[in-house]
Specification:
2 copies of one chain form a homodimer. Chain A is 46% helix and 18% strand. The first copy, chain A, is α+β, with helices and mostly antiparallel strands. Chain A has a 5-stranded antiparallel β-sheet, sandwiched between helices. In chain A, strand 1 and strand 2 form a beta hairpin. The interface between A and B is large, with 38 and 38 residues. The first copy, chain A, binds a DNA duplex through helix 2 and helix 3.
DNA sequence: TAATGGCACTCTCGCTTTGAGAGTGCTAAT
DNA sequence: ATTAGCACTCTCAAAGCGAGAGTGCCATTA
């Protein structure tokens, strides 16, 4: 694939921009009229021919305008990756929303998903901060009724896990508190492997709880991501390219089922770092359901401590110019939030 | 509106059943051929005319078959309300799923939503158990880092609320535990009003936490329902009646926005009791977005202690015969779960 | 020699036309 | 009371048709 001339670059970007706005194949005449490039439609036609030859454009049928190929989008995105800051006014609005939201990971995630969905008019997904090597921080045991006990386990990084246990026999709150306090002393800062390696406890209640804690921490460690929040599922339904086919339905289904979504996130972001930003165009051959879609993804958090993902799904002709800066900005914002509020070891 | 003859009843139910299956206007000839009622198409035509006259049926255009009106559906539903148990095998499958799910309200809700969505092929919604008069049960304060403190508040009925607090200055875990323990002693079993009426505490940390607890409990008391879980958003998109118009999108949007959904649940179930079951057909004039939809709703839980809602949204021609028993069964199941695991006072 | 104007050609899209099919209501006969 | 028959109505899908938009190519221009 040969180099693009300066003029071809300008033209290509113009075409893609126009197509993103209008959702309709763009022709040479329309281009020449609407934008005052100093070129006639004939010249543009020639260049379009060249761009088509090189694989950046495509014509739906012999006599329609041109439409960007995945390759074209990829070029387009690579061009705007570096620049493109979110307007200060929008930054302020978003920051403000976070500032006055109720504190708590849960609310931040919901808010982040909502902001992303609204700004980008796409489907957003945010995963809660998560550590791969869970470390013990604190446990609480709260007697509820009879043999029921509510266990709240806090891990370093801030992840929480709650569970209702049913004990073999009723136990007083006092005894539960003592057990919790003993375990807190014993386990503070330990990773799951270290805990598993500990000798059995003499007290049988202590031992039971310890076992459950280990299970719980293992489960947390093994899961690929924290809880998943989505928003804007319906946004994408109004896009014209999804009006007819049920491609949209299938893509949404993918996003609704957490397990497959987790899989997708895991596979695609295995090598993406905090601060980085990744754009998947057309499913990249991997995901049949996403043939017509693009995803903008970023990782946020404090590497090694707790990180999460956030992203936006939209039609392939989504407004990258709007989505990419938004994702980047929200990622930074969440990173700050995490590092400010992280639960230390 | 005069009485229906026995034959008219049979016919009406047959017609609706057929329409629910086929999604197409049903004509007299088709009816006479497929079901062996001992009647000719002409007779059926006459009866259909009568039923149309009475408002139970409608013809989309002069020469198409008949389609049920909302009134028709209402009659149909009222007929099946009493009978209709879920097949034992399905009951067993569902129970089994709950049995082997991880314990915890959060997981039960997710599972309930999933079961409802799958069984009914509609959009499901489940709200977590919630009490209107929140009573204090327990608080935990966990020091995280510097001035950050994680507060976990447990209320009678089992509702949880977590929050990250930022104190004015760092406080040791020991002092936090003492505060928590003092407050637990002081507040056990109290309702929010009683707590608000308490005299100020001497210790300023105690007082600060107390204020936050009060706020939190008030917020919980005021909210109409517990957290909302949904599933199956995409199910409804494959229905033929939503293929073209964006009615589906609007209905889904309604379900995606928790605030409006809460409003809907609040308004429609204000007078429905645990055990009862309510079917909203065509939005009942109240909800423009739901003109083409029906909702099957039930309340579950222990009245006075903690109750929640669950329901299914589908097209007006949803399979009531499948949905109604499922909703009823899951409601019973959740009620049992709540009363078994309720956090006592 | 790069850019342009002109022209013949192609293909889609929206419009109307048309005929088959399904369903109805009415009436006369059983 | 039920049914067979018939004329009538209306939708839906297929087919035909013309306008419009866009293309590629070639001769001409600056």
């Amino acid at each position: 694939m040969t180099e693009l001339t300066e003029r071809q670059k300008t033209l290509l970007i113009l075409i893609i921009r126009d197509y993103i706005e209008s959702a309709q194949p763009v022709g040479s005449k329309r281009l020449a009229e609407h934008y005052n490039i100093g070129l006639s439609s004939a010249t543009i036609r020639n260049e379009m021919g060249a761009l088509t030859e090189m694989g950046y454009l495509r014509q739906p049928h012999t006599s329609a305008g041109r439409v960007p190929t995945e390759e074209g989008y990829r070029y387009f995105v690579s061009q705007m990756m570096n620049q493109a800051e979110l307007p200060a006014s929008i930054q302020a609005t978003i920051s403000h929303q976070f500032y006055q939201a109720r504190p708590g990971v849960e609310h931040w995630m919901t808010l982040a998903a909502s902001v992303l969905a609204n700004q980008s008019q796409g489907v957003s997904v945010v995963t809660a901060p998560h550590t791969e090597k869970a470390k013990y921080k604190h446990v609480e045991l709260i007697s509820t009724q009879g043999r029921q006990v509510l266990m709240v386990l806090v891990m370093a990084g801030g992840e929480l896990s709650q569970q209702i246990l049913t004990l073999a026999e009723p136990v007083s709150q006092e005894r539960l508190s003592q057990t919790a306090s003993r375990l807190n002393g014993l386990l503070a800062g330990l990773a799951v492997d270290a805990i598993a390696a500990l000798p059995s406890r003499a007290d049988s209640l202590d031992q039971d709880i310890l076992t459950i804690i280990t299970q719980d921490m293992r489960r947390t460690s093994e899961s690929v991501s924290g809880e998943i929040y989505t928003d804007g599922l319906t946004n994408v339904l109004s896009e014209p390219e999804f009006a007819e086919s049920d491609d949209a339905r299938r893509a949404l289904k993918l996003f609704e089922e957490r397990s497959t979504l987790q899989d997708l996130l895991a596979r695609t972001t295995i090598n993406s770092n905090v601060g980085g930003l990744q754009v998947l165009i057309g499913g990249e051959g991997e995901w049949e359901e996403l043939r017509q879609c693009s995803i903008v993804l970023a990782r946020y958090g404090v590497p090694g401590m707790a990180t999460g993902m956030l992203g936006v799904l939209g039609p392939m002709r989504m407004s990258y110019a709007r989505t990419i800066p938004t994702v980047r900005f929200v990622a930074r914002l969440l990173s700050d939030l995490v590092s400010d509020n992280i639960v230390g070891e």
